[in-house]
Design brief:
The chain has 2 domains: 5-178, Rossmann fold (3-Layer(aba) Sandwich), CATH 3.40.50.1950; 187-400, 3-Layer(aba) Sandwich (Rossmann fold), CATH 3.40.50. Helices cover 34% and strands 23% of the residues. It has 14 helices and 21 strands. The longest helix has 17 residues, at 383-399. It is globular. The structure holds cytidine-5'-monophosphate.
Length: 402
């Protein structure tokens, strides 16, 4: 990823204790980070911890003879490719909205020409207060970006909206804000997770897919500036920043959602583990053993589900279509046959018999299988990295008008 410069402004809320984790996440993404603090921020987070993690001097004072000598505050404002305010208290939002410049943080915010991303954190009633609402509206109107706040238990004892977004989510928003935008103007559809095929009102057939690979593919496309629709099977993963999510349960619902979006899509990536079969009938009530003769079990009749990938690949005028194949034996040969049968442009094959790859893992060892027999074997990579390599390939196909 590009080497970008993030100026992280920390204000004095309890959520500041999560900022060291945010600094680590930003550094892990390859960004250079410098931290500036309001005076009260240092009550909640150690400047020394931030200094150690960011590898840069932390500043809190506007008039600091020594540090101004190193890099004056206007140079610091100009240095940033992006300014992140996390946590942003109600007070900092108010000062930003009114253009005050009464400390280092607000002066930098007024002086910078870089985009600003804000992660508010405060008591639920302060967030809901008309004064804060008006300040947020006014900042949004000026193009300030927001991430969060989330809902949940708050440090003050109240429950509701006001929790700072998690560091990983803020880091994702930073990637979006700084993204290379190589997919800007493109619409993509990504499917993720398994499907759940109901037998009756309480039971279902499903599979072990976690959805992590598809969510990483969707997140990476959004980071590159695409408009992303994520058709997601059941699962508890958080929606990546900048992604429109459509929740579905069954293969038939997934098919419907995909084909509703497909006509306007430049690319479809089917990372979902779609059930090949569903129960022929769905009982209206729970199937009860008491209704059967002693020791008897019902026979399960299954029917085939439509193959969404194969059907999408055959649609005239379709964009780039990518499939996934989870195999446990003869992985590459099986993937090659699958690619031909389905008619997609690229098949991502993974060996699900490996413990360090595939279902529920954060890493994946995949091969890109191309029509005509070419195969690219990738090393064990994080799912985010696999997603990045995948979009590099799809971008080439899009560029060549595939
Ligand atoms: O045939 P198999 O299930 O191994 O193929 C896997 C690929 O096909 C994946 O991309 C999956 O999303 C897609 N698929 C589909 N509809 C099905 C079954 C699989 O689109 N009914």
């Amino acid at each position: 990823m590009d080497h970008r410069r993030v100026l992280l402004a920390v204000s004095g809320g309890i959520a500041a204790y999560k900022v060291p984790e945010l600094v680590r996440a930003l550094r892990a993404d390859g960004h250079e980070v410098r931290c500036v603090l309001t005076r009260s921020a240092a009550e909640f987070v150690s400047p020394l911890a931030l200094q150690t993690l960011s590898g840069s001097r932390v500043r809190a004072e506007l008039f600091d003879a020594e540090q101004e000598g190193e890099i004056d505050h206007i140079a610091l404002a100009d240095w940033a490719d992006l300014v992140v305010v996390a946590p942003a208290t109600a007070h900092v939002l108010a000062r930003m909205a009114h253009g005050l410049a009464d400390d280092l943080v607000t002066t930098l915010l007024l002086a910078t020409r870089a985009p600003v991303l804000v992660a508010p954190a405060m008591n639920v009633n302060m967030w809901a207060h008309p004064a804060t609402r008006a300040n947020v509206e006014s900042l949004r109107g000026r193009g300030v970006l927001f991430v969060g706040p989330a809902s949940g238990p708050l440090a003050c004892g109240w429950e509701g909206e006001g929790r700072m977004a998690e560091p990983a989510e803020i880091a994702a928003s930073v990637r979006l804000a700084l993204g290379p935008a190589s997919l800007a103007g493109r619409r993509v559809v990504v499917t993720a997770g398994g499907t759940r095929e109901p037998l009756d009102t309480v039971r279902a057939l499903t599979n072990r897919s976690s959805g992590k690979m598809g969510f990483a593919v969707a997140a990476e496309a959004a980071r590159r500036g695409a408009e992303v629709v994520l058709v997601a099977g059941p699962g508890g993963l958080a929606t990546p920043a900048g992604v429109r999510r459509l929740d579905v349960e069954t293969a038939l619902e997934m098919r419907e959602a995909v084909f509703a979006e497909l006509p306007r899509a430049d690319a479809l990536v089917m990372a979902a583990a779609v059930a090949d079969f569903r129960p022929a009938e769905r009982a209206e009530h729970k199937i009860k053993k008491e209704d059967l003769p002693e020791d008897a079990a019902p026979t399960l009749a299954l029917v085939r589900n439509p193959d969404i990938l194969a059907e999408a690949s055959r649609r005239p005028g379709r964009g780039v279509v990518v499939g996934f194949a989870a195999e446990s034996r003869d992985v590459l040969a099986a993937a090659q046959r699958k690619l031909e049968r389905k008619g997609c442009d690229l098949l991502v094959a993974n060996d699900v018999s490996r413990a360090d790859a595939g279902f529920d893992s954060d890493s994946n060892a995949v091969s890109f299988v191309w029509p005509g027999g070419d195969v690219e074997e990738l090393p064990l990579l994080s799912k985010s990295e696999v997603a990045a390599r995948l979009w590099d390939r799809v971008e080439k196909l899009l560029g060549s008008g595939a």
